[in-house]
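Worked problem 6 (solution included).
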Amino acid sequence: MDNQVFDRKKLTEDIFVLLAGSLLFTISQKEKIEKTIDNFTDDELISFAKLLVTEEQNKISLDKKMINAVENSLNKVQE
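Solution. The predicted structure is:
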């Protein structure tokens, strides 16, 4: 790792908050994911977090497009 200083525990907690918002997973799934994350190197953990953020941003963008499409359809109905 190239001199990056970060709080691994905090990043892991943040990852779970993001996952909880995007997925409904059970406690047993959380434990499995936690064990997997515990085995990640720092670089792998950072890459995983970046991937999650990108995926969530893409999902939000898609959600906005779907909402806009529905709003446009509603506007046409109301005209």
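Discussion: The chain has three helices and no strands.
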